[in-house]
Write a structure and sequence with these properties.
It is a single chain. By secondary structure, the chain is an alpha+beta fold. The chain has six helices and two strands; from the N terminus they run ααααααββ. It has two domains: 36 residues; 89 residues, no CATH class. 46% of the residues lie in helices and 12% in strands. Strand 1 and strand 2 form a beta hairpin.
Length: 145
């Protein structure tokens, strides 16, 4: 609620309006009208702690995927559905998180560095979405090192 409403509520109460009348006029609960009319300062609402999300336990895995490559939310969702047995998040939840994280990754600069031959090695890990392999009777996604 904006500051002018808070001042208006205080003023209306001083004029003798009941909490119920104030609440009906402003479309708020009577307890809120009472709180605002008795408050010397505009009440400020803050969450005690961030709201929990179904996606919280999967965020580290999503972050790793997005560091690997700028996957779309559809790909991230498909991979989580394949690999996680208890994954039950909606697409929009995944999409919003992926969009936020991609924005953060775009702002990061990559620093390239070179070393003398033989001091360091570099390898890549690949994931082939359209291929599977059978290992001991189990079908697994095909990856390469």
């Amino acid at each position: 609620m904006e500051g002018e409403h808070w001042m208006e509520i205080r003023s209306e109460r001083k004029k003798g309006l009941s909490y119920k009348a104030i609440a009906e006029k402003h479309g708020i609960d009577w307890r809120t009208a009472k709180k605002y009319s008795e408050s010397d300062e505009k009440p400020v609402y803050r969450l005690k702690e961030p709201k929990r999300s179904k996606l919280d336990k999967f965020k580290p895995k999503i972050d790793l995927m997005l560091e690997e490559a700028p996957y779309s939310a559809v790909v991230v969702m498909d991979r989580l559905a394949e690999t996680e047995t208890n994954f039950n998040c909606g697409y929009s939840t995944v999409k919003n998180y992926v969009r936020k994280k991609k924005g953060e990754h775009e702002n990061k600069a990559t620093v390239r560095f070179e070393t003398m031959p033989g001091l360091q090695g570099q390898v890549d890990w690949g994931f082939f979405e359209n291929y599977t392999v059978e290992i001991n009777g189990d079908i697994k996604n095909f990856t390469a090192f």
